[in-house]
Amino acid sequence: MAKFGLLYLHDGKWGGRQLVPRGAVRAAQARTTEVDDVFAYSEGWWTQTISERSTYFAWGFGGQFVYVIPSADVVLVTSEDTSDNSINKEINPREFIRDYLLPAITGPGA
Predict the structure, then answer these.
(1) Can you tell me the distance from the alpha carbon of 89 to that of 82, in angstroms, rounded to the nearest whole number?
(2) β-strand pairing of 74-78 with 13-14
(3) pLDDT tens track for 68-95
């Protein structure tokens, strides 16, 4: 999942080769369908702004997320176990990005 996010972070290029058309990567970042005040959807990806940074993310089954934050040069991947026997210790990726990730990479000493 992280490699998929990196592919999009790098405008569809991997190892110097264009694997995903640059236009498709740009389309994934566009806000084409407003869902509510927080989320929008475009070309198989969701978009939202977190701490004034544009993000786009793939939202998969069972709490699987691939967040791409181009302005921070960051990809964040999360996953969880939703089976009946799991403890379900998932994080809220939006809160994690806002409260921990972005301050860690932009704050004093970053």
Answers:
(1) 9
(2) unpaired
(3) 999 999 999 988 765 666 665 566 889 9
